[in-house]
Design goal:
single chain, elongated, Dna Ligase, domain 1, 3 domains, 37% helix, alpha+beta, binds guanosine-5'-diphosphate, 18 strands, 6-stranded antiparallel sheet
Length: 397
Amino acid sequence: MNLHEYQGKEILDSFGVRIQRGIVAHNSKEAVDAAKQLTAETGTGWHVIKAQVHAGGRGKGGGVKLAKNLKEVEEIAGEIIGMQLITPQTSAEGKKVHQVLVAEDVYYPGDSETSEFYMSVLLNRATGRNMIMYSTEGGMDIEEVAEKTPHLIFNEEIDPATGLMPFQARKIAFNLGLSGMAFKEMTKFVTALYKAYSESDSSMFEINPVLKTSDDKIMAVDAKVTIDDNALFRRKKYAEMRDLREENAIEVEARAVGLNYVDLDGNVGCMVNGAGLAMATMDLIKMAGGEPANFLDVGGTADAKRVEEAFRIILKDDGVKAILINIFGGIVRCDRVAQGVVDAYRNMGDAMKVPIIVRLQGTNAELAKEIIDKSGLAVHSAVQFQEAADKVKEVLK
Ligand code: GDP
Ligand code: MN
């Protein structure tokens, strides 16, 4: 689950990580009030108005702007709230901005003593360990840094048995070229950041930029946080931060009925049991000249009710031209799944608008094929993988 910048900063703050202060506003008036309050609390004269959407690169898309007085705060907030923000990380139509973060200006103009770093904490799946990735090249696209100057990106792996060790925090501060007060501040920052990451059950914390001010404070100016969905049951406070407006509407509905669904751009909908088989099925569709419209793992039960729910979710995507059902009957018997498919199809009536190819393999596969072939419905059955691929090809024509 992804969070907004302001929510990520709230978590950081609660673990003692220094952040650029800010207040969320939903309209220009709230923005002006927020700016006044920030001035009272921090003494800041200028403010940055930052669009809150689940996408990075907001600065490039015009979603982060500096306001030098309250009139500008009002104008800029008015412009940004309600706009369709297009950034290098959004789709072509962009994302609607519902709220902004009014933040204190932490860059002192003309100040050459400030520097921006990049820092993230994430899981290295290759080693199964958390790592801190950091760079002196902050404030810009880390992908670009990785491509052009990969030697400027450092990794520090954390041993799960010991957690982050003090020498590692010092090594990071050293590699970032810091000394004196800034060095000390950076070790504190890194230590608190790692604690925030691990104790919130996150799978990613990306702070770009981490700012060193000319008076040697180290702070998070941005925050991109992903909490592990599997941990939300024990992180109620964070689970409540979910903003469904930022998420794919079909995926939200699928989650509500307990289906493991990921929306994709293609034309062939998939219904599969097991994640591995789902991946193989997507390959099969590609080989047949189609493009998968989704990833869908229906899990262990594939009865009529479940199949119907899955049909309805898949068909919400207008791009779907055919549906491929690929079920392995291990614990679940193929004939029961076949009956489920037939019943679900009948229940759907006119709502079923596309041809269906069913491949059932495993216990009672032949019997299942018979049930489907005899149903008289526009369902093509197959037992072999290749057969299924050929049928997908055929119906796409
Ligand atoms: P992103 O573009 O979505 O990554 O959003 P960021 O929060 O990283 O902001 C983009 C850029 O805005 C940063 O890299 C900074 O250069 C700039 N910025 C952020 N906060 C301030 C600030 O307080 N003052 C000034 N002058 N610039 C800021
Ligand atoms: Mn950023």
